[in-house]
Amino acid sequence: MVWPSRKSGKSLNILVLDDNQQWRYILKFILELELGITPTLASTGKNALEVLEALPIDVVISDLSMPEMDGFQFLKRVQTRFTNTRVIIISGDFDEKLPTPDQLKEHGAFAVIPKIEISSKLVNILRTI
Prior knowledge:
This protein has 129 residues and is α/β, with parallel strands linked by helices. The protein is built from 5 helices and 5 strands. α1 links the parallel β1 (14-17) and β2 (40-42).
């Protein structure tokens, strides 16, 4: 899939989806500090889909392991309903019960980042968009 370039200098509209409040605020802090972007926050996949219906979101940063609707299920719904929205999957643990990073990318994830590498990789990936 080819994504349009964002060289116009327009700020990205970012949604952070994580069931863990601490991680939502860590990501919010990183985005504000490094990129000057204040993201929209969501704690459930259902809430994130409601945000996508209401707001033009360029990028969703989604946790993989969440109750009710996990990041993989969320990714598949975004791919069918919001085709211009990129999804970056983050996870603290890629265990055998969850899709692998390669499987996530095959299903349309723009990037997959372990949470321990957030500070070193996320901002650089977002700067390429």
